[in-house]
Amino acid sequence: MKGLTNLKESPKKNLDKKKLPIVRVEKVNYHELSSPILEKGRLASNLEVNLSSEVAGRIIETGVPLKVGQKFKKGQLLIRIYEEDAKMDLRAEKSRFLNKLAENLPDIKVDYASNFEVWMKFFNAINLEESIPELPKVKSDQEKVFMASRNILGDYYAIKSAEVKLAKRRIYAPFDGSYVEVNTQIGSVAGMGSKLAGIIESNNLELQVPIEAKEISWLHLNEKVDILDADGALIFTGKLVRKSDFVDQGTQSISVFVKLEKTSGQELYQGQFLTARFNGKVISNVMEIPRNAVFSSNKVFVVEGDILKEKKINVIRRNENTLVFNGLKEGAVLVVEPPVKATENMQVQIKK
User: pLDDT confidence of 17, banded at 50, 70, 90?
Assistant: First the structure.
């Protein structure tokens, strides 16, 4: 029986009992890399104007409703302040001026005959319903003294001032746009200097994008910028037109401004958030890996034989999901998906 027992073969060890962690790896291979910068920004109009009243009076209907979001075209009358009393006062001033000219025309004809026809033509051209024409030029110092002594010059410029004030009772749209703020309504009284509304130019939008201070050197003025929607689809192109020269204290970022150039029929709105994709610059002799392959800010694992070893890398820049680096020997087996609770000298097997 003992002899038969010795002839029996020993059972083979079950090697499957020791399951090694599986890791995904890439061989280090450096090359040139264009590293874009993607950041979200907020749309704002490049031209925003506050409408204020330079005269006092009651606001009357113009045809364009004083409502937030109301659109208008360039040249449309936006705000009109009651003006009939100012018109009547202006007519009265012109009438008194005509009366004074009529009294002095005989003296002009006798003393300044060479310029009489010019003054007579000016007198006949004055219309109570229209702007007063340009004042004739005096030809001599004596004529100038005469006009000043009769206060003709002073009355003329008083009328011109009244015409300017009358024109300020109407505010016209300086561009195609819409109301973003309205502080008054039809029938209310506008005070001198009071803010009536805020308007923006709808077709002149900029994307304000906050960029980390350490990445601002990667961006250059006038470079092309892709504008992406929430799904990452290209909807517009733009151009980097300005960079702030200060850091926002709250976000510790620097704002850059992208002027939009339409490439599709999609509507854009002030306050809308979009993603800007900047080209950045081409970096030589680098490699890009997932950010989760790096730990302790600048360490990675490499596989030597079947053992994990820690190595330090030189981080060039960090993107949202990836990281650009160099500092390892080319051909090294870099772990891009480390196992859970990975440690140095851990035995692993490489994913086929």
Answer: very low
Instruction: Please say whether the beta carbons of 156 and 147 come within 8 A.
Output: no
Sign of CA dihedral 293, 320, 322, 257: negative
* Dihedral (Cα; 325, 326, 329, 333), 10-degree rounding: 10
Domain 17-35+283-350, what fold?
2.40.420
**Cβ pair 294, 300 in contact under 8 A:** yes
**CA-CA distance, 261 to 332, in Å (whole number)?**
46
Q: What is the pLDDT of residues 101-111, one digit of tens each?
A: 999 999 888 88
Torsions phi, psi for 256 (to 5 deg): -120, 155
pLDDT digits (tens, 9 = 90+) for 199-210: 998 778 899 999
CATH topology of domain 49-81+172-200: OB fold (Dihydrolipoamide Acetyltransferase, E2P) (2.40.50)
Q: What residues does each domain of the chain span?
A: 17-35+283-350, 37-45+203-281, 49-81+172-200, 84-167
Distance separating alpha carbons of residues 348 and 306, to the nearest angstrom: 5
List the 333-337 sheet strands across, edge first.
Answer: 307-312, 299-304, 333-337, 22-27, 349-350
- Is the CATH code 2.120.10.90 the one for domain 37-45+203-281? no
Q: Which amino acid is at 102?
A: A
| DSSP line for 4-20 | HHHTSPPPPP-GGGSPP
Q: What is the pLDDT of residue 4?
A: 67
Tokens of 129: 């319903």
75 vs 68: CA distance, rounded Å: 19
> In the block, which residue shows the tokens 């040139």?
32
| Distance in angstroms (rounded) separating the CA atoms of residues 333 and 97 | 97
Q: What is the mean pLDDT of residues 277-294?
A: 88
* CA–CA distance, 81 with 62 (Å, rounded to integer): 10
Nearest to 105 by CA among 118, 116, 115: 116
Residues 6+ apart with CB under 8 A from 35: 218, 280, 281, 283, 288, 316, 317, 319, 324
Return the H-helix or E-strand segment holding 143: helix 141-149
Give the pTM: 0.64
